[in-house]
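re: ur msg from earlier - yeah i can do the NDP complex, just paste it... oh wait u already did. ok heres what im feeding in:
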Amino acid sequence: MSSKDKTNSSDVREDRVVTTVEGAPLNEPFATQRVGKHGPLLLQDASLIESLAHFNRERIPERNPHAHGSGAFGYFEVTDDITDVCGSGMFSKVGKRTRCLTRFSTVGGEKGSADTARDPRGFSTKFYTEEGNLDWVYNNTPIFFIRDPSKFPHFIHTQKRNPQTNLKDANMFWDFLTTPENQVCVHQMLILFSDRGTPASYRHMNGYSGHTYKWSNKKGDWHYVQVHLKTNQGIKNLTNEEAVKLAGENPDCCQQDLFESIAKGEAPSWTVYIQTMTEAQAAKQPFSVFDLTKVWPQDEFPLRRVGKLVLNENPLNYFAQVEQAAFAPSNTVPYQEASADPVLQSRLFAYADAHRYRLGPNFNQIPVNCPYASRFFNPAIRDGAMNVNGNFGSEPNYLAQSNKYTYLQRDRPIQQHQEIWNGPAVPYHWATSPGDVDFYQARNLYQKVLAKQPGQQRNLAHNIGVHVAGARPDIQERVLAMFARVDKKLAADIKKEIRLASAPKAKL
Ligand code: NDP
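and the outut:
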């Protein structure tokens, strides 16, 4: 009896005939080979064994930070000429489109955690350019908690579970961040605990490079650059209480919103802007341009429009195209370089390394990560687990400038007039800056920006208060002292909120 005969449908296609993993027809997918009717199973039932063994291996390690995410494909389109700033092919002419994949994520939670957690959101985009894959591995916040990469694993651990109780732990979180030398976090803490810390959906939030990059034009002139992607759907946030409620009622609300909007033909889009700064301007700033806890004031460094990012295509398969997507700031193209920001420099190593661990050394060969608009040719990068690209066939396994094996080397343009670094190689502690430098931008946000948005100063104090209420009293004191350096009223309001949140609740 053929497999066709076993279906009720008359229009079954040949390519839907079920097979073994080796491609032979699978006779009985729902039967097991046994001795007689009720006797033991037989080891010779290879399809059962394959099915059980493969099931045991379905899960791959989740990302450590950014485990939980959603993604979609789309395109970037140039709307404004910036060739005076950047010579990359993707910006070569107005109207040019480049296919891309964007993945949004939360940071601290596990893969099944709620979309509405109070957390920064990852906003990573892979551009499949003709000059190779370019990844913008950004967040929905223009700054970050730390500026020294030696603190990164410690900081992320404080967002994870207590090693003993296996619970999220407000003491760990606030203890680390209010330690005096870690209070550079204060600016990011204001954004995290404002309502922007709980975006209503991925479509309703901005993306920012956060880091300073170095872009150059074809003449070799370079600028420091920061990138902003502003949502065209408008900013929309949840209050703390709405976020908590949704975490119970529909924890996948942002995944659902993104997928369903695109499926309905309502493709979300972002307008892309850059800020540029010269080396001379950077030298005059009261902060270092390599300090990830600072923004560039927009009146001095106005936003310049570049293009738009449109997400109009849902993935066909989440695991293949989103879970296996490997974004890394080290994936860059000619004319876009990393700056000396030490957190960015450490990410240049850490992201690709995380993918080698999570997906294997040949993760670039997984279709979603292949530079399909360009090509990969380097037969000295070879072998390793899961090599599936033919391994460059009979090409020699080394590169050498000999007559026999000549390889074409195309110059990658080097930016001219590079910064010159010198100094002793010493352990350097980038501790709190002198005076008010690490606090005044947070104060600007509180006193100038949030003050103009009705209810936002109050929500900030409330959101901090209900969280800090779970921490020890001595840590609460440190929290109040830190926010008092931003604004005394903010600290007083947080104190009231802690008291309210700590008051005994009436029994239901
Ligand atoms: P501006 O008045 O020129 O810029 C204010 C910026 O604040 C806007 O660009 C807007 O960014 C952002 N903003 C508006 N509402 C909120 C909110 N609820 N939470 C966080 N950010 C918000 O002043 P400055 O450039 O001097 O910046 C003042 C403060 O604004 C900074 O200290 C920083 O905290 C924050 N900010 C600044 C950004 C910058 O690039 N300069 C970018 C984002 C925030 P957007 O339109 O991108 O939402």
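cool cool. The first helix runs from residue 46 to 56. ping me if u need the other ligands too
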